[in-house]
Amino acid sequence: MKSVTLLGRLTACCLTALSLPAGAHDLIAAKNDQIDTAFDIVHANITRQNNTLTFHMRVSGQAGRQVPSATGALAGSDVFSYVWPTTLNTAMVGFDADQGILAMAVTAHPDFDDTPLFDENADGNLANDGALWHSHWVVLVPDEQCGAGALKVADIPTDATPTLPLTWPGLPILLDSPGYSPVLTEQTVAVTVPLMGSADTVDGRYDAVTAGLRVNASAHDPLLCVVNVFDVASGDLSLPATID
Fold this sequence. Notes:
Layout: H1 7-15, E1 26-28, E2 41-49, E3 52-59, E4 78-85, E5 101-108, E6 134-142, E7 151-153, E8 175-176, E9 183-185, E10 188-194, E11 205-206, E12 209-215, E13 224-232, E14 241-242
Antiparallel strand pairs: 1-2, 2-3, 3-10, 4-5, 4-12, 5-6, 6-7, 6-8, 9-10, 11-14, 12-13
């Protein structure tokens, strides 16, 4: 398990808009026997077709096999995630511009449901689907309260009136619940999403990460911290791959 402080390198990269060297379209990593196979990344890419992006990740074992244990409460609960951090601007998906690191995340968390517009298990209850794998756009920013060099999902201050996507779930963080259904098949996780505006303007870099997040025990700012990094496709969060 890699230290969460590795994410500090991603923060420096994206928030200061460093010029990165040209890289390949795909990320390929060797199998790592020290990582749970459900989170051991061996391949990742982001491909573009017309006005959509498809996020793809392959692990060495069964994707989605591991979900957090339920605690019975929101505060202190855990989130497991497959994440594609990018250099795309946050305005591309309905947030204000330049708010932090825009990432697509496929997550599962049995203690709360943050997709209030969607009934993923089709049982007529919109509020009991958190344990099923689902997708989010998230904005990541550094916060030392989460640990040295660590990131969190950006909190919304109580007096702020930010621009938010129409499918924002109402939590006081920069997180969107757009309802794009991820597909988990054997070793792969994939989700296809539309973009605002023309895909011809997409020019970004990315990495792929598997990670655990945790809701603050006081369920307050910071609300949702990255607490464990299971694997990083590039090995060093250098965002070497370009969107194809």
